[in-house]
Known about the structure:
This protein is of the alpha/beta class and 551 residues long. It has a single domain, classed as FAD/NAD(P)-binding domain (3-Layer(bba) Sandwich). The protein is 25% helix and 17% strand. The chain has helices at residues 3-8, 26-36, 56-64, 122-126, 136-150, 177-189, 230-238, 286-296, 385-391, 396-406, 450-470, 533-550, and strands at 19-22, 42-45, 84-85, 153-154, 170-171, 194-195, 242-244, 249-254, 261-267, 273-277, 280-283, 320-328, 343-345, 373-378, 410-418, 426-434, 440-445, 473-478, 516-518. Strand 8 and strand 9 form a beta hairpin. Helix 2 (26-36) runs parallel beside helix 7, helix 2 runs parallel beside helix 12 (533-550) and helix 6 (177-189) crosses helix 11 (450-470). It is globular, with a radius of gyration of 23 Å.
Amino acid sequence: MSPDESTAVDRTPSDRADVCVVGAGPAGALVAHRLASRGYAVVVLEAGPRFEFESRDERMERAIRPGHDERSVWDMGGERDRFTSSGSWFYPLNHARVKGVGGSTLHWQGMVMRHHESDFERRTRDGVAADWPIDYGDLQSYYADAESELGVAGASDNPFAPPREEPYPLPAFEPSYSDSLFAEACERLGVTMHSVPNARNSEGYDGRSPCVGYGTCKPVCPSGAKYSADVHVEKAEAEGARVIDRAPVQRLVTGDSGERVDAAVYATPDGTEHRQEAREFVLACGGIETPRLLLLSESSDHPDGLANSSGAVGRYFMEHLFAGAGGVLDRRTRQNHVGFLTSECHQFYENPGQPTSGTESGIPGRDADLGPIKLEFLNYAGPSPVEMALDATEWGDDLLGQLQGAYGNHVAMGGLVGQLPRKENRITLDASTTDDHGNPVPEIQWSVDARTKRTIERANEIQRAILTELGVEDVSVIGPDATGPAYHHMGTTRMGTDPAGSVVNPQLRTHDVTNLSIASSSVFVTSGAMNPTLTIAALALKCADHVAERL
């Protein structure tokens, strides 16, 4: 959208709003749609732009052609997206986030697992961290609703998964060819493979096409078969909701008593500030921007930031860490033919140190304090032929021969492990650096503890054993000292029943402000090792129901 077109859009406040939602990613979109469909007047304020669907082909080209920074695919970077990282580990925030209608689901991988029952009970089961104030049963029906809304393709073949009462909306994708190579080795070792629930259409669903195999799922799906939250933004608008893009909220303003939010103050591209008033407010702007906005909204009634009497706003920041291993086989693996995962393993989730019951070449046990491990069988391992050609020094037939000899026989495994919540891992404000509106940027203080490192090492042990059994020689690993985050921002406005130690209650409403709710992974109490988006979606639907109860 050009500057002239952006100024032609009406971004003035609505005269009447029952609910103001901040953020148009998956949580905000689902909240807006559910409330608008029940007849409530909803306004959504989104900091980023609308991305025309027709631009996806061009964005796909940006993703696969040389010369483009990965952040350019969805127009990230510049003053608007400044941040600082001051922890012992650098946190590359802009590497994998999107500001705009649809949020980070515009470039996500699309894997959607339910949390295990144990994820809600870490203190009770393992004596670490804290229990959630809700359990799996409280979210079970919301998980089912979320799967239906997103259009999840899956199968009930995971013996380690939590209970479910209904089938997935769509059939699971068939395992990839490289999964079939892993299957024999895993069977010999006693390792159980099963399907991955995916928020992408295995057949036509909800007016969107089935997956057509572009293979560029991350960072862009040109066909729309992979779910992105702009789907529910459009549904919300069809139900009467109003969505204002390029309207970053600067602060939330409370009334005389400080107990209720009166308005969200937002800026527009021409530099004007507006006040959107509403009866209820829902923050749905992720695990970084949500605490940042609360801290920016300090006042005489809330001197440490809005809803922060506990001091927990911004604290307990958690991530998932990646563990990987790979190598080369003496046969073709059809690498990069599928752009997403089709098989995984939750066998080491509840008891990550347990050995398998396979052969003598099997996986050894580990007697150590470890967290849950989710293993993934990658079918997009190794370099692409384009990357190899660009780095080559040969030309013509020599280059072709090199590509034919070196491409197509890579195989790899991935895995996620989670961090425990620690107060020192936190989001604060850096007043020495400002954004395009003069606001302090988020400062990320992040480090990785010894327990998480031990768990990554354990994941590498299991991966190495499987790859060795498969016949991979010279297995290389991505381990605890050379890994990075999965860009799952969790824990910075944690849920709890005690206002002295948490930010929101089990209904997702802040303890301190009676008309302010938070729908985000920021309310997670512990991280587990599951991709968080399905739990975000379930919590968003739960949040919307509680907001409706108060209206």
